[in-house]
């Protein structure tokens, strides 16, 4: 049983709170609360019953009330009948005349129309007078019940395996909460799944911000830091990831755990993540690959990409002979650092507008591409 769900009900919110605390004290060992219960105070609703008698209408309305709800009020409209005498040529017009004459509400239905007297013929048998009808209207009894549902709350508990299972949940918020719980528990069994979560691709754009937020990755990073030194070795493998964001948050975790690079490749990854661009120039050819990754990652901020492009230009200019052919080839595919702007443009006489995108080059990378092409051409000749 990796997970178990509890539902608590009570007459009042305070009653539910007391029951929750009592239930929490009985959570089995090695099980954990996935999140704090959200308490619903209960809601008032109404339902209606219609029947020939008030008692039957009340019973019908009661069948629509939830079994755990309490009745807090009722409104009764007893059954009623109206008998109207009208003069009319036929039954159909008699009903219409009766409704107008007595202002009978539309919820009253016709129960019976009786012909009480036939009209007499006119003088010398000419013409026709109206018949006399008795029209009976009726309406059923109506009972409106107001009821209130119980206050309630639900919560789920899970063992360690159940929480780790939530790291793969389709909801990014469930994954985030699971990572936070695992960090609080501190069990090393969760390290490998949390390291995998540093590669989570779910981006959330909050409050109109245009920079990408990675709440799941950040929660996983905090959890690994709380677990401690045992997280260092498994996390190191992510320094080889192509995704710049993954490498960046990996360095943040490792640095927080006191890790120090053991080779130039690790050192370059750390420097890029920290934005110490001048140190990359001193590091030389080994910094080319992490700089290219920054420029290839669309979610990276414009300022970061400009800094990376400037640094890469300087590195290639100083150390082009030391750079591997694979890295030089990758550099030929670098695009200029651009920024897209949108402007509303009038497109018709009917005052219709549409957003037109314009791309502005912020940093021209043609110098980088030209330097590496020249070096690759020279190497082919040699």
Account of the 3D structure:
The protein is α+β, with helices and mostly antiparallel strands and 382 residues long. Among the domains are: 80-139; 167-260, Leucine-rich Repeat Variant (Alpha Horseshoe); 291-382. It has 15 helices and twelve strands. The strands form four sheets. Strands 1, 2, 3 and 10 form a four-stranded antiparallel beta sheet that branches. It has a three-stranded antiparallel beta sheet with strand order 4-9-5. Helix 10 (264-274) runs antiparallel to helix 11 (277-283) and helix 13 (302-319) runs parallel beside helix 15 (366-381). The protein is elongated, with a radius of gyration of 39 Å.
Explain the layout of strands and helices:
Elements: E1 3-10, H1 13-24, E2 31-33, E3 38-40, E4 44-51, H2 54-62, E5 70-77, E6 80-88, H3 91-102, E7 109-117, E8 131-139, E9 141-148, E10 151-159, H4 160-166, H5 172-185, H6 191-197, H7 215-227, H8 232-236, H9 244-256, H10 264-274, H11 277-283, H12 288-296, H13 302-319, H14 325-331, E11 337-346, E12 353-363, H15 366-381
Antiparallel strand pairs: 1-10, 2-10, 3-10, 4-9, 5-9, 6-8, 7-8, 11-12
Helix pairs in contact: 4-5, 5-7, 6-7, 7-9, 9-10, 10-11, 11-13, 12-13, 13-15, 14-15
